[in-house]
Amino acid sequence: MDCLFCKIVAGEIPSEKIFENDKVFGFKDISPMAPIHVLFVHKEHTANISELSETQSGQLQDVFKGITQWAQEQNLDEGGFRIVTNQGVDAGQTVFHTHFHVLAGKKLGRFG
Ligand code: 5GP
Ligand code: ZN
After folding, report:
1. In a 3-state reduction of DSSP, which class is residue 95?
2. pLDDT one-digit tens code per residue, 17-28
3. Ligand 2 centre and the CA of 4: distance in Å?
4. pLDDT tens digits for 55-80?
5. 97 in active site
């Protein structure tokens, strides 16, 4: 499958890894929108959050567990962090392997 994030997970395309366990992979976004901007993906490919929810809902728990574990290790609990996922054209999804942006490191503006 020609998927950028599957290739990153497999190590075929280099990335700055920040988290990994048997199910979940986290790496720095190449174009950060905040002092801390990382992406978390499940190692099993789904295209978007709808597909994941329909077919692989256990993945959500895996990914969120990974994110919260990493955030705790980074001491982000107190200052806080934001988790964002984009689905489809209107939301600006550009990579069609479900991923969760985690943004932190400054007081984040409102979105909309
Ligand atoms: P989306 O717009 O689909 O929600 O998010 C895709 C994200 O992937 C963007 O924030 C973009 O900067 C990031 N990205 C795109 N290509 C690469 C890459 O090759 N490596 C890394 N680390 N991030 C990428
Ligand atoms: Zn993929």
Report:
1. coil
2. 999 999 999 999
3. 6
4. 998 999 999 999 999 999 999 999 99
5. no
